[in-house]
Amino acid sequence: MPDESTYVEAEKLVKDKQYDLATVEYEKLLLSNPNDVVSLLGLSEVCRKTGDSEKAKELLDKALNISPDDYMIHYHFGEYYLDSKENDKAVAYLQKSISLKEDHIKSYVLLATAYRRMKEYEKAKEAVSKGLSFGENYELYYQLGETQYLNDEIDDAIVSLEKTTSLKPDDHQTYSELSYMYSKKDDLVKSIECMNKAYEISPYSRYRKKLFFDLKELGRKEGDVLDATDFFRQGEYLYNDKKYDDAIKYLDKSIELDSKHIESLLLRGFINFSKRHYTEAIEDNLRVVEIDPRCQQAYYLAGKSYFRLKNDKKAIKHLTKASELLPEDDRVYNTIALSYIGKDYEKALENIRKAINLYPRVEEYYANRGMIYEKLDRIEDARKDYEKALKLNPKYEYAKKKLETLKNKSAEIKKAEDEVIEGYR
């Protein structure tokens, strides 16, 4: 019988999104006991989160055959079907989970989620109410608030989400939702207060943008002439209409009127990046971080621009700062990994693993890690990653090519590596 700490460690690896290591631990446990339900459920969760839904379902079916009255198995089935957007099936399994263990709070959370997605708002609220009868839970209050908002009960929704923040003060998403709800009620002061809190917790660009415009709107007076924000909005409209050169003209005017107009600088920088004007993109993004040192997006785009210019040292510096500000941004770690190619393959591997753990359903990440494994002479690991990339996207030609080169051991390996690096630049 495995020590309890082994299960705890495996669960922690899943929670920390270290899916490769969690897989190893669960496979070890199943090797010693193929009918270990806890390990079957744990490995199924890893498979589901990394995009292998077929294997996840297979493991759940096996667990159910072993222990048909285990509420956790039905709960995991509920998660599985919610993930695949089969809400009616999710409801059936979650109801079964609750019938087996009436006080399982997480089952009520997912049940409310399923009903909300099905637009059965009264049933969603009933699920929340029943769950709350067993104790307060921030996820239940969040589901209640979201349901009430969709059911046009905005005042009640605000009360529920305020309760959520009192139970979980570091939940940036709830503060963001509250900000939008207060905006709907034309309470800009409260909207700004909530969005500022969201941005303090996690500096997402969408949070900063709403905060920026709420502050501008609060300061606007009737009869004001056209200002920098008006020119930005026109520039943004033209950008969305793919009229990039015209957009730049309006953004230039916006910045001329207000040299610290962050949104105009960011959008102009992004357009310059898209047009491969990397030096200009860097200039705009570095101006932004002078104004707002917490603007993660600006550090990311500056870093990626340096990468495209093959200045990997400066790329890594700015991308590392972006990762510190927003540790859950998988794109940053992928670009850092590519910046280390040819310099430090262990650091490249460390960063691409972080990208995969954060977002394990991107085929390019597995292909990039496969390339790094090749450089480290870990050919079998490379082959598995290329196969994983191909499983996520059967039309992924690069992965097909790499698998073929591994089979043939041909000289094309080096050429293909150079091609993919240049493609990212």
Radius of gyration: 25 Å
CATH topology of the domain at 228-327: Serine Threonine Protein Phosphatase 5, Tetratricopeptide repeat
Mean pLDDT equals 94
Distance from N terminus to C terminus (CA atoms, Å) equals 51 Å
Q: How would you portray this structure in words?
A:
The protein is mainly α. Among the domains are: 228-327, Alpha Horseshoe (Serine Threonine Protein Phosphatase 5, Tetratricopeptide repeat), CATH 1.25.40; 334-425, Serine Threonine Protein Phosphatase 5, Tetratricopeptide repeat, CATH 1.25.40.10. Helix content is 78%, strand content 0%. It has 25 helices and no strands. It has helices at 4-15, 19-32, 37-49, 53-66, 71-83, 87-100, 105-117, 121-132, 138-150, 154-167, 172-184, 188-201, 205-219, 228-240, 244-257, 262-274, 278-291, 296-308, 312-325, 330-340, 345-358, 363-375, 379-392, 397-408, 412-424. The longest helix has 15 residues, at 205-219. It is flat, with a radius of gyration of 25 Å.
Q: What is the secondary structure topology, with strand pairs?
A:
Elements: H1 4-15, H2 19-32, H3 37-49, H4 53-66, H5 71-83, H6 87-100, H7 105-117, H8 121-132, H9 138-150, H10 154-167, H11 172-184, H12 188-201, H13 205-219, H14 228-240, H15 244-257, H16 262-274, H17 278-291, H18 296-308, H19 312-325, H20 330-340, H21 345-358, H22 363-375, H23 379-392, H24 397-408, H25 412-424
What are the main properties of this structure?
single chain, 425 residues, mainly alpha, Serine Threonine Protein Phosphatase 5, Tetratricopeptide repeat, 25 helices, flat
